Amino acid sequence: MGNNFIKADLNVRLFQNDGEARFIRRPNRFLIIADFYGKETVCHCPNPGRLEEILFPGVELILEKRKNTGQHKTQWTAVAIRRGKTIIPLYASRANRAAEALILPKIIPNLKQIQSEYSLGNSRFDFLCYDEEGTRHIVEVKACSLVEHAVAMFPDAPSLRALGHLEELAELSKTGSCHVLFVILHSNPELFIPNLHTDPAFSAALSRLGELKVHASLLLCKENGMAELIKLSLPINLSHGDLAAADKGNYLIVMKIPKKNKIETGSLGTILFQEGWYVYCGSGQKSLNMRINRHLRKQNKKIHWHLDYLRPFADEIRAFPIMSYKNLECELSRDLEKLGGQGISGFGSSDCRCKSHLYYFPDPPLQNREFMDMVFFYRHVKSLNN
Fold it and tell me: What band does 314 get if pLDDT is binned at 50, 70 and 90?
């Protein structure tokens, strides 16, 4: 009987290294423009996540030649990023290869049968497994590429599909064993946490649904595309579900003012805003996401905050929620100034001692590694210290 058990492999291939290039820009989530031997080349991006922590101009890419190129608009796929000595695989769906070959035989004792892409009703799950005793195990795999400050988080963007999987698995767990497996693709994190900042509903659900078996495993991938299992069970912290559900914390609003303009700002009078980028830090100790969504709206709102005067003149805007136990608004302000931001005197800081809560940057902050590192430090470390 024992010889029929499925044994774990030692390694698995996640990609082919057919060429290398440098990242230029990402026009949408499915395409990357790369500098490939001096020529701008359009590449398929197989990871729909935001990837804001790793896709900076000039970063090194590993490309794979696409098969049946006549059937595709692009001849190359950007399959990995080289960051220092670390290889970060981008092909999220291929994490299932690693899960099947390296991880499932170890997290499901006496595993005897694996069926991939199992359909049940209107849903499809990554794996249906059976152990020696005939117990059914349904496994959903989530590829995690967001690792900063020794903390891995999933997802890096809101995912209704991922939330739906959790709810369906919780219902199915009444008649079998259901697993959520997070495959962490790089670096050496000490901890996994569901990303309450980008998807509080998913984080709250994962913390609430105790009937699900949650796993986090770490892979190490080499530049030739071969991956091996480094840690089968990374520590998991699901204790921040209440904070996710509370919808409270802080935020950063990043916006671009496309041309120099004199703008009336209420009690602050008329201010000359230079062309460039502005970062606003604020707080919402209740209904955080409602506050952020209001800031993002360009029309159909009464003027209330200083930012309301500026919003109609911005043509690019992004919000970064930071769920937090404490109000970190003034600390964010000080750190923006340390990054070289030029404060607009009195803007958004009438109820504190800060010089400003709005800072001007001549260059795009989202392409600045130091700015993004600050964002992830607050999200991955500072905001979660209660």
Answer: very high
Q: Judge whether 127 and 111 are in contact, CB under 8 Å.
A: no
Residues 264 and 216 in one domain: no
Among the candidates 85, 113, 130, a domain finishes at: 85
Residue spans of alpha helices (H) in 119-188: 160-172
Q: Does 7 fall in a domain?
A: no
The DSSP secondary structure of 196-220, one letter per residue, reads: TTT-HHHHHHHHH-TTSEEEEEEEE
Residue 321 sits at φ, ψ, to 5 deg, of -65, 145
186: closest CA among 157, 155, 144, 225?
Answer: 144
Asked if the structure places residue 2 within a domain, the reply is: no
- For 222-266, where are the E strands, in sequence order? 226-231, 249-257, 261-264
If asked whether residues 73 and 139 sit together in one domain, one would say no
List strand residue ranges (DSSP E) for 258-366, in order. 261-264, 270-273, 276-284, 316-323, 342-343, 358-361
Lookup result for tokens 């995690």: 144
17-73 per-position pLDDT tens digit:
999 999 999 999 999 999 999 999 999 999 999 999 999 999 999 999 988 766 668
Is residue 363 predicted with pLDDT exceeding 80? yes
Contact indicator for 250, 281 with CB cutoff of 8 Å: yes
**Same domain as 366, residue 301:** yes
